[in-house]
Amino acid sequence: MYYWHSFIWAADEWFISYSLPPNLVHVKLFTIGHTVELYLKSANANITGNIDRAIKFGHKIEDIWDDCKNHDRKFMPNFEIRNSVFNIDLFTGQLEKKLSRDDLRNYSDNQEFYIIAKLLPDLKYIGTRLQSLKGPHSLTSVYPNPYWINFFRELRTYLDHPHKDRRDIIKHHIDKGDLPVQSIDYLKGLYT
Predict the structure, then answer these.
(1) Is the pLDDT at 137 greater than 80, yes or no?
(2) For residue 75, which of 40, 99, 151, 152 sits 20 to 30 Å off, Cα-Cα?
(3) Which residues does residue 169 pair with via DSSP β-bridges, in sequence order?
């Protein structure tokens, strides 16, 4: 039988994969996007008590995020997806003209989160024809991005993960020392 925390093991493995060198931008963006999706599905199933409902969101990060926020005001208070930012074309190069100063700061602080929330189904196809983006585009990312340590630390705390009765696969690999030093140093940030 599956429980809400069944997603966490897979999410943790995807996050470990994200931490591993080398920096393959397209692969890393998809990897972190899928990590976010799995953690959010765990949170949603925990909040609503319905795993099947969480799965039906598919890759729609914004929808599952909004559903978590709507069901629990205490969910991820330090992060938000703003409709005013999410609904514009982030790739026109004219964000300064289209966003308020506050929205532009929010986008700047959460840029990769917006990119994966908007483009997760397409990220694995970067470099080929995309469904969500028409015309030329480019994506950059910071790797490994300290943003994700803060994001997942808050999300894991919300989920009470690691729970004393469940194995923490990330901590296991850190303690075992079987990851590259760069990965271990990055992942240790989850525990500080």
Answers:
(1) no
(2) 99
(3) none
